UniProtKB/TrEMBL annotation:
It comes from the Bacteria. The keyword Transmembrane does not apply. GO terms for molecular function: oxidoreductase activity. The gene is ypdA. Keywords: Flavoprotein, Oxidoreductase. SUPFAM superfamilies: FAD/NAD(P)-binding domain. InterPro entries: Bdr (IPR023856), FAD/NAD-bd_sf (IPR036188), Ferredoxin-NADP_redctase_2 (IPR050097). PANTHER family: THIOREDOXIN REDUCTASE 1-RELATED-RELATED. NCBIfam families: Bthiol_YpdA (TIGR04018). This is YpdA family putative bacillithiol disulfide reductase.
Length: 325
């Protein structure tokens, strides 16, 4: 029976970093990834730009060289997939983990294709798979999307963008520049302070000149084929003509999966229980890495500040192994 030292669930940047660290430490590891390598980034908007400069997205000592200071999606895919390819990392793509069960001192990790036995598990599953739903009438219509790819399908159309942070602002500006008539709806009275510093003047000036209309202090009440109904804080309802809705309302980690493996979540914030020194959860032998650690607050962790989770975990595993020998 093949027994892994560590099975890493998720082949995003942080899962890849765990694989690199495992190689360095001589641990027997396997990454199971439900899509392609760096699957979340693969599904990002085609022309997005990272807010981090390339050096802050680097893994290990592998340089991330780009001609622009801020890399885009394609640069990041070349970089992360290139690492997996060149380092011949042990990754099974298109193999989603369904369950993790404790069997004596081991874990059985099961996908639809196979069962694996491992001493330790790292969960690096990110947060990009489950959108924060608005839970309103009409959200299920095919013209409503929580993901955005590129602007060219919307020229001459009425587009509503829901949200106040980077994703919403990027969608609004791109679709406006490609000929859409764009309205935004923002729950608070301003755009998020996290909007990229070089993008903020652009969106603010487009709003000021009236090219993009924004309803601040408002939310979407319902969506129908030809209209959206917005509700302002005063209670006033406004019908806005509409062809497409981009609900950039954020995403959440798969809490059900975390709970199914026995990880305790804070009832309010859903932040999982783990030791920040080793990243080990309340389930002995199960570790968390990357943005999955943030619970509902998906702005807490990003690549820049969670790259070091890999070294923490793998050095803890190395020490654990040495203390048993
Ligand atoms: C538009 C956008 C721009 C961003 N810009 C920046 C930036 O400039 N700088 C920065 O530091 N961060 C940025 N972030 C955040 C960062 O890109 C992501 O948070 C990053 O991808 C997190 O890495 P991760 O490995 O923790 O998670 P992810 O990259 O999400 O990787 C998780 C992986 O797990 C896989 N997976 C999930 N469930 C399973 C399962 N059951 N079985 C097997 N595989 C599974 C997924 O397919 C995915 O590939 C940005 C995020 C977005 C959305």
């Amino acid at each position: 029976m093949e027994v892994f030292d560590v099975l890493i669930i998720g082949g995003g940047p942080i899962g890849i970093n765990c694989a690199l660290e495992s190689e360095k430490r001589g641990l027997k590891y396997l990454v199971l990834e439900k899509g392609t390598v760096a699957n979340s980034i693969y599904h990002y908007p085609l022309y997005m730009t990272f807010f981090s400069s390339a050096d802050r997205l680097e893994l290990g000592d592998i340089p991330f060289i780009t001609t622009a200071v801020k890399p885009g999606r394609r640069d990041a895919l070349e970089y992360y997939q290139g690492i997996a390819r060149r380092k011949k990392l042990n990754i099974h793509t298109y193999e989603k983990v369904e369950t993790v069960d404790k069997v004596e001192e081991f874990f059985r990790v099961s996908s639809l294709k196979a069962d694996y036995v491992t001493r330790n598990v790292v969960i690096a599953t990110g947060f990009y798979d489950i959108p924060n739903l608005m839970n309103i009438e009409g959200e299920e219509l095919s013209k409503v999307s929580h993901y955005y790819r590129e602007p060219y399908g919307y020229a001459g159309k009425e587009v509503l963008v829901v949200g106040a942070s980077n994703s919403a602002v990027d969608v609004a500006l791109e679709t406006y520049r490609s000929g859409a008539r764009v309205t935004m709806v923002v729950r608070g009275d301003e755009f998020s302070p996290s909007v990229k510093y070089w993008v903020r003047p652009d969106i603010e000036n487009r709003v000021k000149e009236g090219s993009i209309k924004v309803y601040f202090n408002a939310s979407v009440k319902s969506i129908s084929q030809d209209f959206v109904t917005l509700q302002q804080m005063s209670g006033t309802l406004v019908d806005v003509p509409n062809d497409f809705v981009f609900a950039m309302t954020g995403y959440v980690p798969d809490f059900r999966f975390l709970e199914s493996v026995g990880i305790a979540l804070d009832p309010l914030t859903k932040i999982p229980s783990y030791d920040p020194l080793t990243m080990e959860t309340n389930v002995h032998g199960i570790y968390l890495a990357g943005v999955v650690c943030g619970g509902r607050d998906t702005h807490l962790w990003f690549i820049e500040n969670s790259r070091d989770h890999a070294a923490k975990i793998i050095s803890a595993l190395g020490e654990k192994r040495n203390s048993k020998n």
